[in-house]
Amino acid sequence: MQEQLHTKPAPSVSSQGVFSALQKGLGRVQSAPLLIIGLTLASLFVSLMASLPARAVLRDALALRPIAEKIVRGEYDVGFIELLSDNPAGVTAVSSVLVLAIVGFVLFQSLTAGGVLSRLSPTHAARFVPPGQFLVRCAESAMSMLKLELLFGLAVRTPLLLLVAAAAGISVGWSRAAELSFSTIVLRVAPVFLTFFVLWSIASIWQTLARMKRLDDVELSAWQSLRAGLRLFAHRQVILGVLLLAVLSVTAQGGLLIAGRMLVIKLDAKQLVLWAFVLRQGISILKTTISTLIIATTCELADES
Amino acid sequence: MRRSYTARRSTLCAWVGLGAFAIAGSVAHAAPSGWPQDTVALRVPGPLSPRNTSYRMEARLDEKTHEVKGHALLLFRNLERKEASELTFQLYQNAFKHHASTFIREAGPQLRGDEMPEHGYGAIDVSSIKIGGVEQVGKAQISDSLLTLKLDTPVGPGSVIEVDLTFVTKLPRTFARSGYSDDFHAVAQWFPKLAVFECDKSGDRCGFRAHQYHGFTEFFSDHGSYEVTVDVPDSFVVGATGIQVAQQQKDGRKQLTFRADDVRDFSWFADPKFVEYKATISDNFGPVELRVLNRPGLQSLDARHHAAVQSALREGEQRYFSYPYKNVTVIVPPKDSGGAGGMEYPTIITSFLSPLPSGIRTIEGVDAHEFGHQWVPMMVNSDEVLDAWLDEGLNQYFTGQAMDRLYPGGCGTVNLAGFCLGDRDVDWLSARSVYRRMPLSTPSFRLSGRTYGAMTYAYTAQMLRSLENYLGPERMRQAMRHYAERYRFHKPRAADFMAAISESAGEDLSWFWNQAVFSTRTADYEVMTIENHKHELAYGLWDCPPKPATLPQEIDLPENERTEWLRQITESNQAACQGQPAGRHELSPPSEKDKKAASKSKEPQLFDSTLTLRRRGELLYPIDVVVRFEDGSQEQLSWSLAEQSAHPEDRLKIVRFYRRAAIERAEVDPQRKLALDEKRINNGLLAKPSMRPVTRLFLTLAGWVQTALDLIAL
User: Fold this and answer.
1) ipTM of this model?
2) Looking at chain A, which terminus has fewer C-beta neighbours within 10 angstroms, N or C?
3) Set of chain B residues whose Cβ sits within 8 Å of the Cβ of A175
4) Lowest mean pLDDT among A63-77, B525-539, B584-598
5) SS3 annotation, B299-345
6) pLDDT tens sequence across A2-43
7) Which residues of A touch B425 (CB under 8 A)?
């Protein structure tokens, strides 16, 4: 496969090819509604489970307190602080569960990554699995995907985070940041963070490519998969596609986050908490759709190249 | 240009109108009328104070060595009935001379989280003290940050002494309110400042009330007039106490002369990087010139400084009395000199840098607080070392009022992304964090840093809010004004404050002061339990024909409840006897089937409800109680001070109700009058749990977690 990559002539570069891949990717996402709903439900399930200890703490502290209504309505924000400071054990327990949930979700994502990627691959690809084989593929690829996740986290994500911290520091002038106004700081760090998000998204696509390579060749180690994924970037079609996909991902996810947040705040302000929750689920489904679309399109682009 | 000593002497003579006294240069017995009477730096008629400690000084800043070479002519008039046989000066820069100083022993080499920089020592060296032309410096005894000089000739009552001082002040690297970093110089507590000479109330014991520079507290001195010429490089911009009355330039340096009247200190700040903003704030007494000396690039924040000072000025004039000075200057120190920020001197205050969004109102809060100090203690001259709360606490209370004026709606500290915190909230959180370990009356140097901050600032502010809620806002405003007007340009102690407030309120408030100032009593009232029982009055043995109902006095019931109870009994008796012959008849509870039918009927049932209130703390305060019933009716009760004082060991108040509706909820102190209440969530209680808000908060939290998880998948 690697040999093939080196010997195959590069395809002609055109945005049309990228959009065509995007279209095909969209088609495959549409054909996997259960996957989208399943992934969304997984995040919902983890969120609810992670928040359950908080519910117990809140019930003990507030269920009999009339002031809880005011706290919920945002009329007594200092009540939150009183609640937190008077229930340190509860806060510690809740925070621990939340952190564990997030770590657990990352692990869940990596464990299911093989199945998701196979399910979203073109039907002619060797790694493709029909819906019935999804869980089997997840189980088969779980360990290798986990290794890849850990390596990627250490070798790519962590340096990227350090890099953005350094870049943000440099952009505001490190120690002189205190002498800047807030608007100046925002103006200076905004480009850094925008670039970071695009790079982060590119890294995610790279991770998808590495996973693909690992699924295609079970003999590859995590490190080799990472390198093989990177080598795919050498194809101009892929790199152009990756850039477009990264920008698309950041724009769409960012837009959804901002629009969703604004709508949720409005609904919360009107005490329509249940509607806000429903809206969040809708947004979550859209976000999952975008994430899977990026994966499907990445598969399409890489397989074409 | 630095003028000669002779020239300085001549100017002084003209200034004070005491030619013979000054030429003689010795202890003079001048009439008070000879004291400076003009009001150059005031916008109201003066003098406003006795001006018994006045200075004429020259100071040359060496921007390379960060030293100030100074010369001062001090005029001190003894206002007491006994002579002063010695003079005591504050040499407060000696607090930073070495680690054995009082200041560093108490506070450690840090203040408010700001560490003392390495090699950043400071000191003040007095090289000459002349009285009547005779050198006295050899007789001076220095103890840490105080210098005492025995006088050959005591200063008699009403007499004036002229003291000629030469000194060099080495500024520390900015730490604890003064110092330098790069070209920025915060020149405060920089000259030998005479302490306060006073006699006790009997007039028998007299001496200087002179404090070492303590770890947490600031300064105390007499009022006077100051004329100070500051010599700095041409490029430096200077902000100082008072108004600038003259300027000269020579050899790349400039000499700026400032005049300040009826002030208790003089400080100045110099930095070539200052960017000036000027504005005028007008009120009924004329214009006040506002000058902000800001950092480069932060001009967008000038308007915020302006708004904060304006709000504090208006509030101060409403709460206390008119601001008498012609100007006010706001200094914004650089990042490296954060330790000089958040400080007050007469007509000049220092702010903070804040890179935070405008919804976090640090700048406004600091400016309003520091400007509020212009009244307390700059004019109402309390002693922070002995009565710290009279200074910082009263001003913290004032800061909340000034911020309310600027940001009505109670979000004066934070109003960001829907999150709202006011000054009262922040003070409450701070006060409860170190709740009452020591009485407020404890001198500041006996407190630790954290306790000092929370008690003197936040606790006092909350205490005064509790008092305001007891007296009512107008009575409290009048009382505070009464205190301020009575003691402006005087030196009140805590007892004077409490007496003034009680006097104005026309009420003996010792019950409040004893608890809030002189004890460590804590405050916490709660609704402990609500019990509702269906009460089936109609069942039992009834004697017919019905007799008038009675209710033993031992059953403690409010009058309306007692009436209801009697009415119910009478009705039940009449119902049981309806159509029955004379004699005893039993009315039994209905069967289960009938009960179900009855429960479906809309006929309201009678409830025997018990409400238990609890005083968890020791502090007694009159408490309002609101009880709401399931039929929407409401009952207002009170747990009066008299009731609590009569049985101070009783921690519970049990109230019983007999109504056709059960208690739905109850709340003590619903208007939060007791601002010192340590816990607020326990103020109210529902009879039945309500999961609605809990579920809402749970769903909101789950939504946040889900958003975080979605972001991970980016």
Assistant:
1) 0.85
2) N
3) 335
4) B584-598
5) HHHHHHHHHHHHHHHHHHHHHCCCCCECEEEEECCCHHHHHHCCEEE
6) 334 343 444 444 556 778 888 999 999 999 999 999 999 988
7) 77-78, 81
